[in-house]
Amino acid sequence: MRSYLICDNRELLIGMRLAGIEGVIVNTREKVLEEMKKVLSNEEIGIVIITEKVLSLAEEEIMKLKLERKYPLITAIPDKDNEKREDYIAKYIRESIGIKI
């Protein structure tokens, strides 16, 4: 099972490639949806990592995929431009599994 990154940041893509995770840079809604279609057709990919900015480009479609499909796991990570909020971990858990801590 492989992981795959869909982001809009070259530095993040380079860092993930150093960790062995392939990916692509996208900047438009159409490109996001095109890459998601490719990823969903590749059975070797088990985890799709998407930055929050990319998620916002096609949020409705991606959230629908997260709810309807068990595989691959689709997860969003913060962008480098986002400020770290103290409640980020709690918010992430709440949105991911529905538990308020």
TrEMBL record:
MF-aspect GO terms: proton-transporting ATPase activity, rotational mechanism
Name of one Pfam family that matches: ATP-synt_F
Protein name: V/A-type H+-transporting ATPase subunit F
Native source organism of the sequence: Maledivibacter halophilus
Family: Belongs to the V-ATPase F subunit family.
Domain of life: Bacteria
UniProt KW keywords: Ion transport, Transport
InterPro entries, sorted: ATPase_V1-cplx_f_g_su, ATPase_V1_fsu_sf
